[in-house]
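User: Some background: our group keeps a shared notebook of sequences we're curious about, and every so often someone picks one and asks for a predicted structure to add to the entry. Today it's my turn. The entry only has the sequence so far, pasted here. Could you supply the structure so I can complete it?
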Amino acid sequence: MAEAAQQSTEQIEVNDSEEDMNEFLTFMLAGEEYGVDILRVLEIKGWDDVTSLPNMPDYIRGVINLRGTIVPIIDLRRRFGLKILEYGPTTVVIVLRVQSRGHADRTMGIVVDGVSDVYQVKTENVKKSPDFGTAVDTEFVRGMATVEEKMVVILNIDHMLNSNELSTVDSLSND
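Assistant: Of course. Here's the predicted structure to add to the notebook entry:
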């Protein structure tokens, strides 16, 4: 009986430690590594042409039809004001499930330079992003994590992909 109690205690400890872990898909963008919650990743696909939309901000590349769902595609280099590069063989679209308050979840894609890795990070090791003043806008950053002696910027995709500028794209997704 004591063995059973010890085993259940060990099981609880294992479950607690699993609950304290986050898993992030990381990707490269202008030489920096960024991460998104892996539970939000629906698909990773190679870059393919999109259907352009008129009167959209330049970072909205257009839309794709993904198995009957219209998916807006956002170029993160452009969204973050980084140097624009021609898409290459490692350029991919990460298709994500985005949550927004008061609205149904939606599917959106982000264009990145390439996928890097999947990391498990303890919740306590995701630190709040430092305040850079006005030089760097951190509104889309959920936090920072050190993984294998490198910094990974963890993005808040719900905030990043829910700005007012995307309301026009929302109407396309709901039609």
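Suggested note for the entry: The domain at 21-174 is CATH 2.40.50.180 (OB fold (Dihydrolipoamide Acetyltransferase, E2P)). The radius of gyration is 19 Å.
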